[in-house]
UniProtKB/TrEMBL annotation:
Membrane is among the record's keywords: yes
Compositional bias ranges of the Low complexity kind: 21-36
One GO CC annotation: plasma membrane
Superkingdom of origin: Bacteria
Keyword Membrane applies: yes
The entry's keywords: Cell membrane, Membrane, Transmembrane, Transmembrane helix, Transport
Cellular location(s): Cell membrane
Protein name stated in the entry: Glycine betaine transporter BetP
């Protein structure tokens, strides 16, 4: 069998073996157990596809908007917007109480799940499953390696590195970690890298792999709900349970992107103040920045992945490299060079101890976790539906091993170097008497460092451009993916849907900034943790779906099992086609009825 899809995609089945009404995962029976139909006559399964035939398109170009998904997701988001605008104090109080509950009673789930994700996805990469290709066996990648890495990195955490590149190490250096000494470089860098390297990219890799495998290997829709087919079957994935998963995906994405928009607005405003372009920018300036960024990312989204996001991502990477190289050269170069191996070594040495931190680990640890580890895990999880879907979309033709190792290790290496350059420079300058930490405001620290170095005004302007373009890239990806989620996996969604989610994201960012008042950053962190909580459980189940799906890949089946797999996949196709045909028939029937009623009334 030269191609996985030869004799898998289009199969005709004898009428002696009628299909079940409840369709389980390919290669399984209706209840999801391994497929062992004793009445199946494999000789009567007739292949009608060529050996090199690709799977059916994973999208319907004429797909209609899923009104149920859009309605309920938009209703929840609008309810939050209305609540925050009408009664910001009540909204803030509720959010704080909900955060206390999550941290106290649910925080341990975040902590354990984060490390489970890392070890699971690395095991998949190093196992036999790593040889599976995300596409046909002889398929090759759509994007070259440089553009691929630039796009996944820019979408995944570009703006976060800009915001926290100085603030994160400086905060842990000055204030320490509960139970640890302050002004300790090892603690500062090991904790920073714990939050920004393997853990976030493991989360993205899990979601991305699940979607890419189902979409490009099996020809399913590019929806997170479709990734759960190995666990819940096609009927449930396309029914209310699948719609609930897609609604939660959009909900988490809106809030995660809104938090990023809020962070970007805060830091751009700080940059305007630092460069003396605007004196003490207030709420009005924040709203203006959000509005301008919103218009820009919607324009970028309309131009498509191959144009807007790809070009912006490449531009971001080049400009970020220039800024980092500038700080490396004019800053404490030798200190930075020594920081890279030392920081990574401390991270590996303290990995398991940091992974085991809970609210009971030390006095004050509960509040520290809420503002740091739990926030980051929630932030990455809230971003995972759109980042995972996006990196799946740009990773067709990669092997599972290549996908996982590049998605996890390349951004990790870049993050280590980035924090060593900016965090190492900031800590060194602070220890030499400069005021980098200031009053502890996170958004100010990057510009304090840049102004402490030569050409501070110019480098600050470059940083503001990077903040804007990094966010535009991320929000562009998010609005595009939310459109896909809203339109049954259609890769290029209707512009109205893209605009809808882009506007709602901006509204949420405004509400979070207004309700947070002087502590806007805390407001952004609080709501992100709450919004991401249900998604932790979904990603844990997604790990099971990945294992089950890869275990039944035709690469690991004998000839009879491959043919049984083909039968199940064929039934899945017919179920989807029947559902779409039934929906089209109902639309035609309704249209004819309306025409008849109009004619009768005349």
């Amino acid at each position: 069998m030269s191609g996985v899809y030869g004799r898998v995609v289009c199969m005709s089945v004898s009428e002696e073996n009628p299909q079940s009404d409840d369709i389980g995962p390919p290669g399984t029976d209706t209840d999801g157990a391994p497929f062992t139909d004793p009445g199946l006559n494999l000789e009567k399964i007739s292949p009608v596809a060529t050996e090199d035939m690709l799977p059916p398109p994973a999208e319907d170009e004429n797909a209609k908007v899923d009104k149920a998904v859009v309605f309920f997701a938009a209703l929840i988001v609008l309810a939050v917007v209305a609540w925050g605008l009408i009664s910001p104090d009540n909204f803030s109080t509720f959010a704080d109480n909900a955060l206390d509950f999550v941290v106290t009673d649910f925080g341990w789930v975040y902590i354990i799940a984060g490390s489970v994700f890392v070890f699971f996805i690395l095991w998949v990469a190093l196992s036999k499953f790593g040889n599976v290709r995300l596409g046909q066996d002889n398929e090759r990648p759509e994007f070259n390696a440089a553009s691929w890495i630039a796009m996944l990195f820019a979408a995944g955490m570009g703006i976060g590195l800009m915001f926290y590149g100085v603030a994160e190490p400086m905060n842990f250096y000055r204030n320490g970690v509960p139970g640890e000494a302050s002004e300790s470089n090892p603690v500062a860098f090991s904790t920073t890298l714990f939050h920004w390297t393997l853990h976030p990219w493991a989360i993205y890799a899990i979601v991305g792999l699940a979607i890419a495998y189902g979409t490009f290997r099996l020809g399913r829709k590019q929806l997170l709900s479709s990734a759960f087919i190995p666990l819940i079957g096609v009927r449930r994935a396309e029914g209310w349970l699948g719609k609930l998963i897609d609604v939660l995906s959009i909900f988490a994405t809106v809030f995660g992107t809104a938090a990023s928009l809020g962070l970007g607005a805060l830091q751009i405003a700080s940059g305007l103040n630092a460069t003396d372009l605007v004196h003490d920018p207030g709420t009005g300036w924040l709203l203006l920045i959000i509005g301008v960024l919103g218009v820009c990312y919607l324009i970028s989204a309309f131009s498509g992945v191959s144009k807007g996001i790809q070009y912006l991502s490449n531009f971001n990477m080049v400009l970020a490299a220039i800024l980092a190289f500038f700080v490396l050269i004019v800053g404490p170069t030798v200190v930075i060079a020594n920081t890279v191996p030392t920081a990574f070594g401390n991270y590996l040495q303290e990995f398991f101890g940091m992974a085991a931190r809970t609210a009971d680990s030390a006095p004050g640890m509960d509040e520290w976790l809420a503002s740091n580890t739990l926030f980051y895990w929630a932030w990455w999880i809230s971003w995972s539906p759109f980042v995972g879907t996006f990196i799946a979309r740009i990773s067709r033709g990669r092997t599972v091993r290549e996908f996982i190792l590049v998605v996890m290790l390349v951004p990790t290496a870049v993050s280590v170097v980035w924090f060593a350059i900016f965090g190492g420079s900031a800590i060194h300058q602070e220890s030499e008497g400069s005021e980098i930490y200031g009053d502890g405001t996170a958004e100010n620290m990057l510009f304090s460092l840049l102004h402490d170095l030569p050409l501070g005004t110019i480098s600050s302007m470059v940083a503001m451009v990077l903040l804007a373009t990094f966010f535009i890239t991320s929000a562009d990806s998010a609005s595009t993916v939310m459109g896909t989620m809203s339109q049954n996996g259609k890769l290029v969604a209707d512009r109205k849907i893209t605009v809808l989610w882009g506007l709602l994201t901006a509204l949420i960012a405004v509400v979070l900034l207004l309700s947070g008042g002087d502590d806007a950053l805390n407001s952004l962190q609080t709501v992100t943790i709450i919004a991401a909580s249900p998604f932790v459980i979904l990603i844990l189940f997604l790990c099971l779906a990945i294992y089950r799906g890869l275990s039944q890949d035709p690469m690991f089946l004998d000839e009879k099992q491959k043919r049984a797999f083909a039968l199940r996949l064929g039934r899945e196709r017919r179920h989807q086609e029947t559902a779409e045909a039934r929906a089209a028939r109902e639309r035609r029937r309704s249209k004819r009825g309306a025409t008849a009623d109009k004619a009768e009334s005349q």
